[in-house]
Amino acid sequence: MLVKFQLLHDEAIVPTYASSGSAGCDLYACLDKDEFSLSPNCRQLVQTGLVAEIPAGYFGMVCSRSGLAKKFGLTVLNAPGIIDCDYRGEIGVILYNGGSDQVVIKNKQRIAQLIIVPYVQAEWIKTDILSETNRGSGGFGSSGI
What we know:
Elements: E1 4-7, E2 25-28, E3 35-38, E4 43-47, E5 50-53, E6 58-63, H1 66-72, E7 74-76, E8 81-83, E9 92-97, E10 103-106, E11 110-118
Antiparallel strand pairs: 1-5, 2-11, 3-10, 4-9, 6-8, 6-11, 7-9
C-alpha cells in the first residue's frame, strides 16, 4: 500500500519500520527546539512535521511505543489516536507522562508508532428487537477478572 506524505519542516523525519515484520512505523518528534521536559502527570501535543494522505478505507492508529511506556511511563494519551483518511493536517501526538520523573523529549526522537488499518463504516438500522445472547447486557467485569 502506498501512503502519500509531505514533510512540513527540514527537521521532519519520514516514518520508519524498525524491522520487516513491524506492524507499526515509528513517528518522530519535530520540535522547534532541541528538547523539552514533560513533568509527571502532564501531557503535551508533540508535532511530527508530517502530513499524510491515508488511502480511503483505511485509518492511521497512533499507539504508544512499548519501550517508552515501560521505561518512563510515557504513553499516547488518547491511545489509540485515530487519523481519518480525509484528514490533511499535521500529525500530532498527545504524549502523557504517567511516570514519577520528568521525561526529556528530544527533537527527532521516536515518540509513537503509526499502524495503517482498514475499516468499514457501519450502516445503522433502528429496530425494536435485538438478538439474544448468553452475555446479554453484562458489562464491565461480567466475564470475570
